[in-house]
Amino acid sequence: MNISRRLKHAVITLGFCFVFAAAESSAAAAPPNPPTLPVADAKALSAEDRMRIEQAIPPAAPVTPKKPRRLLLFDLNVGYPGHRSIAHANYAFMRMGEKTGAFRAEVSRDPSVFQPESLKQFDAVVFNNVVGNPFSDAALRKSLEEFVRGGGGLLGIHGTTFAFTIWPGAKEDWPEFGVMLGARGGSHRQSDEHVYIKLDDPAHPLNAPFGGKGFEYRDEFFRVHEPYSRETLRVLLSIDTEKTDLNQGRQFGNTVRADNDYALAWVKTYGQGRVFYCTIGHNPYVFWDPLMLKFYLGAIQFVLGDLEASTAPSSAPPGTDTKPTARR
Ligand SMILES: [Zn+2]
């Protein structure tokens, strides 16, 4: 993806992200660890959207938490206006935690929340569409890496494959984050692309909401880049290339992968930590879709450490040990 194409994408996105971006600037001076949904987020959601989210929240979590869980939702964007769906995901995840009792979520866009003393209060961190470089401080980056490596959870949504890159231009600024997450970048077609989705692992606990069947969806689906590899992660969902027209509308960057492998969601380990990534999350409606909220709720319980699920790489033979190990 070249810079001019990225700029076009940014401009297109700017149209519907403007309200959120304007609100975000006023939230810059928020306290390090705000206990409640920032005012900026509340304003970004219409009453109608909040109602849609409320009605879509699953009535119960897949498993009972082993202990009270805390989830950090981090959504700082730098050099990019921010996806409009950020507010919807924050609200949906917070309410899912409250309604099911599975966890308590808190939103922050202050990098100081990654200081070890702060981070240790949480079981997992969600990078909610974090585009650009949220912080360069080496100590904070080390703290995040050690948190995940030491057994914490990391959940990345959509644009997070561009976190810790300099935007615009997506210049790599912390390669280890891509290793942690499992991929970088994200060339894509238009944000309403119609895709047939295949379950790569139909019996995987995180895929339970789909009942063993693939499904159709419309969103902006990233075609991720290195270090993505089925040797290091377990793919849950991918584009069914037999059924999907891969040449719909415009493309932003090169959307063709030589291996024809278009993973959309996966799990992996990083040291002792659990990692989940899903590219579905560009459009706000993803977060008032009961099916996707069920999927994300299972993923949250996986990264929190409550829902046991295999992270054996897709390329590994059946029966491979699935526990997080020192390998990543
Ligand atoms: Zn997007």
How would you characterize this protein structure?
The chain has helices at 3-25, 39-44, 47-56, 85-100, 116-119, 138-149, 175-181, 290-304; strands at 70-74, 104-108, 124-128, 153-157, 165-166, 171-172, 184-189, 193-199, 215-219, 223-225, 234-239, 251-252, 263-270, 273-278. By secondary structure, it is an alpha/beta fold. Strands 2-1-3-4-14-13-11-8-9 form a nine-stranded mixed β-sheet. The model is unreliable at 1-36 (pLDDT under 50). The site of zinc ion (ZN) has 5 residues, from loops. Residues 83, 158-159, 220, 282 line the site of zinc ion (ZN).
Brief summary of the model shown:
By secondary structure, the protein is an alpha/beta fold.
List the helices and strands and how they pair.
Layout: H1 3-25, H2 39-44, H3 47-56, E1 70-74, H4 85-100, E2 104-108, H5 116-119, E3 124-128, H6 138-149, E4 153-157, E5 165-166, E6 171-172, H7 175-181, E7 184-189, E8 193-199, E9 215-219, E10 223-225, E11 234-239, E12 251-252, E13 263-270, E14 273-278, H8 290-304
Parallel strand pairs: 1-2, 1-3, 3-4, 4-14
Antiparallel strand pairs: 5-6, 7-10, 7-12, 8-9, 8-11, 11-13, 13-14
Helix pairs in contact: 3-4
The protein binds zinc ion.
Q: Report Rg.
A: 18 Å
Major sheet: order of its strands? 2-1-3-4-14-13-11-8-9
Helical content (DSSP H or I, runs of 4+): 25-40%
Uncertain runs with pLDDT below 50, 5 residues or more?
A: 1-36
Approximate shape: globular
Q: Tally the helices: what do you get?
A: 8
H/E series: HHHEHEHEHEEEHEEEEEEEEH
